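ASSEMBLY PREDICTION REQUEST
Request ID: AP-0331
Submitted by: J.K., bench scientist
Number of chains: two
Total residues: 995
Priority: normal
Notes: Please return the full assembly, not individual chains.
Input sequences:
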Amino acid sequence: MADLDRRGFLAGTGLAAGLLAGCRPRKDPYTPDKPPVPLAPGVRMGAQTQVLSTCGMCDVGCGIRVRVVDGRAVRVEGNADSPVNRGGLCARGLAGLDVLYHPDRVRGPMRRRGGRGENRWEVMSWDDAVGELAARLGRLRAAEQAGRLVLLDGQWRGNTHALLGRFMAAFGSPNHIGHGATGRSAILETVRTMTGRPGLPRYDFQHAGCVLLLGTGALESSSQAMPLGVALAAAARPRLYCASLRLPRTAALVDEWFRVLPGRASFFLLGLLHVLLREQLADESAMEKADGFEALRAVVLAELSPKQVEARAGIDADRIESLARELVAIHPSVVVVDEETKDRSAVAAALVLNAALASIDARGGMRLGADETAAWPAPTLDGVAEAAAKSPAIDGREIGRRDAGASRILAVPGAILSGKPYPVEVVLLHYSNPMFSKPGGARFEAALAKVPFVVSFSPIVDESVRFADLVLPDPTYLERWDVLAAGQGTLSVAQPVVAPLENRMQTGEVLLRLARALGGTVARSFPWKTYREAVLARLDVGGRGDDLLDELGSKGTCMAPGKSDEADEGKSFAGFISVATATQTLPLLEESREFPFLLCPFRDHSYAEGGFRHVSRLAELPNGPGWSGYVEIAPEDADRLGIEDGDWVAVTSKVARVELRARVHEQIRPGVLGLPLGGWGRVVGDLAGAPSRLLEARVDPATGQWLAWETRAKVERVG
Amino acid sequence: MSGRLPRQASRREVLTLAATAAAGAALKGSALADEKSVALARGKAPSPQWGLAIDLDRCSRCQACVVACATENNVLPLGPQVFASTRPIRWMDMLDPGGRGDLWALGRWPAPIPCMQCERPECVKACPVGACYRSEDGIVVQVWDRCIGCRACMIACPYGRRYYNWTQPAWPGGDPSSANPDVALRPVGVVEKCTFCQHRIRAVLERARLDDEPLDDEQIQRLPACAAACPSRAITFGDLADPHSALLALAQSSRATRLLPELGTHPRVFYLRGKP
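STATUS: Completed
Returned structure:
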C-alpha cells in the first residue's frame, strides 16, 4: 500500500465500484419502491388493497373501508354499502388508526413483577399465560368457590361479550358485571319492565317528521349520533328539538332547545301527554289495552296540565301546549331516549308519549326489540354451575339474572372491600377501566388492591393494566375477525385489516383455550376449535355459512339470516306492565349554599370509550377536550365569579378537587357545570386530577342505577 | 387563554364580517351572478374549475371533516406540549367566533372552513419566492420545497387558512405506519394549507383518461376526504365550469354566500344556508 500513488488509487476504486454495480441484480426502474413524495424513513410503497370491515370505536357498527399499503393500514373511510352510515364516518371512526398504531399498545401477554403499580413486567408465551389463569381458576372451582371469579365487562353485546357470559355460566359464577348502571341500564330496564321487550330502542330518524331528543347524547357520542347524522342528509330533514341542561357545539341543527330543569324531563313529557289526552289527539287504541292506563290517564289529566308542570319542569306552559299540537301535526314524531338518558322516570314518560303518538314500532318512530337474536344452544352445566345460577351475585342484582340491564357495577367496590356476601379471588377486566371511567373511581382502586389476582384484556396500557397481575392483550378492532349485528337486521363483518401486531390474541380465542384447559363441563360447553367456528355456530346459518361469508367479504355487510329489509311494522305495543314508574321522579335535588353548582357529566363528540382517551387526534379536535380537560360554565355565572374563557379554575365537589380550563358556554343553564368525561390524556396511573374523580357514586337503592345528576360542586378561579 | 387570544380576535373579525356578507348576499340574491368579475359567469374558464359548497343547514358540526382531512393529508397530532403552545394545524378547521350571545340569532355556530381557493388569492401576491401559485383548475397550490417560511402569505390571507410548521412533525410514538403515501410530510419551517385533496382529484382524472370515459359529476361530488367523510352529506365538491354540476346549481342558488366578498378575493368555497 505504501507505494500506491493517487492516480493508481482512484483507478482502483473506480474499477471496484464498477464491478460491484455489475454484480447487483438489475432493478426495474419503473416500479417505485419509495412513495411518490418524501414521508418518513422506512416507509415504502408496495401492494395496495382496500379491506372492508366494521368500525369498533363504539357499538353502532358502521361499515368501514381501510386502505392498506405494503401491510400498513393508512386510511379509514366509510363503506358506502353499509346501511348504517352510507359512506360517511364520524370523527372517532376516522381516527381509528391512532388506536391501531397507538404508542401505548400492550405488546404481548405479560406477568407482573414487583409490586402493583410499579409497572415492571415479565413477557411470557400465550401457553404459559393461559395455563397460569387456568390453574388459578381450576383451584377456585375445585374448592367450590367458582363464584369468587368476577368479570367486569365494558361491552354489552357482540359475540365476545356473549362468549364471556357463556363462560361465566359454565364456570359457575353469577358475577358477569357490565357497565350499564352508569349508562344504558335505565333504558334497558325501563323498556323491559314496561313492554317486556329486551334491547335498546332504535329510531327511524330518516322518516321522522319531528324528533324530540332527551339529553344531548344523539348530538355527541351516543350510538344514535350516526343514524341522526345520516338522516340529516335527506332533502327534508326532521324538525329537531332537544330537552336538556346544556347543548354542545355540535347541536347547530337543533331548532329549539328546551332548558328543562335537572331531573324533571318526565314532567315536561307528561305535560305534553296531558295536552294529547285532553284534546283527544292521542292514539288511545294501542294504550287502552295497557295495564294501568286508566290510572295514568286520570293522574295526567288531573295533576299534570302544562300550567301545573310549568314551574316543576321549567318550561313555558304555552310552549308545552303548542309543542304537543306540533308533535301531532308533523307526523310521525318521536321522542328519543339514548344511552345518555339515565333518568328512569323520563324513559318511562317517553315510552308512554311515543305510544300516545303511535310512534312505537312505526315508520319514523321508535323501534323496540333485541339488537341481536342469535344464540348458542345452552351450555352444559355441572353441579357447581347449577348452584351458581341460584346464588347471589356480589353486586346485589336479582338472583338468576345475567342480562346487561341487571348489573350494578357501583356496588362492586363495597362488596369487594367488605368481603360480603363472599370474598373475591379473581377479577377479569374486559374493556373495563373503572378506576378512570366510573364515579367513585378511587374506591375501585382500593377494592382492586385487595383482590389477590387481577387480569386485564386491555389492548392499550391504562389503569386496568397497571393494576393487573396478568395482562392478556386483545388486538384492536382493526386486527380482529368478527361478525356483528349492525342494526336494521343487518350483519356486518369485521376483518383484520392488518395481521395482529406483535403478539396479541383475540379474547374469544383465549376463552376457548381457557375452557379447554379447565376441562370437564366447561370444556364441553365450548366445543368449537376457533372463535370463527363459535361465531358461525351462534349465527346459526345452517348450510348458508359460505354464501353468507362470501357476501360479507364482498360488501362488508348483508342481511341477517331470517331477517328482511322491512322493519317489524304492525307489531302491537305489548302493554305497560307498570305505569307507576312514569310518575315517579328522582329524589328532589338538594339546594346547597356551599356547593351552588350542579355537575352535568357528559360524553362529548370525541369520546371513544375510556381506554382510548389519549387518542391524540380526538383530544386535539377544534371543539375537543384538549389535553387538560375543561368545564363548561354559563356566562352569567362566569361574570359573577370573575372567570373568563380559558382561565384555569378549581372545581370542588364533596369528594374531590380538580383543576380544569373554563369554557364559557352560552348553551348551558346557569347553575350547571358541564363536565366532559373521557377527555383527559395525562399519564396513565395518575388519576388524582381526572375530571371523573369529582363525581359522587350515589345510586338509586332500588335499581343500583347511578344518580348521574346529583353531584354538587363549587368553582373558583385559580392562578 | 394565552395561546388562543390572537386567533380568537382575528376569527371574531372574520365572522362578524361573514355575517354582514350573508346579509348582503341575501339582499342581492345569487352569490355568483352578482359579481361581475367572476370569470365563470362570463363562461371563459376552462373546465375543470374546482369548488366546494358547505350546507350549514345539514352540517351538524360533528367535525368528521376535520379528522378526515388530517388523516388523509398526514397532518399530525401535536401532543400535549406543542398543542398547548402553538396554533394547531388544521387544513379543515372549525371557524368558531367564541364570545357571547345567542348562537341562533347571530348565526354564530362554528362552521367548517377549508382553504377558500380564491380566484384572486392574496397569498399568491404576497409570496416573494413563487412558492404559492394558482393552478389552471382553480386550486391555490403551495410548493413546500420552495417555501422559505417567511409567512407573508399567512399575513395576507384574510381567512387565516395557512399554517406554519413551528416544529418538525412527529408521528405518535415515532411510528409512521399510518402515513398516507400520496401526500408529502411538510418539514419544519414551511407554510402549509388545504389542497382540495389534489392527489385524489388527480387519481380520478387519470383513471377517467385511461378508461377513456368522461368524468361523471356523481363521482366527484364526494371526492375530497372531507366531503367523503361527511355523514350528512353537507359538503359538495365539483366543477364550476360544468354547467350540469351539482356544485354550480348550489353556488348559484339564493342560499349561497361567501366569506368576505367585499375583499374581492372571490372564494371558490360557498356556504349555503337559509330557505331557498
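REVIEWER COMMENTS: DSSP finds 25 helices and 25 strands in chain A.
SIGN-OFF: pending second reviewer
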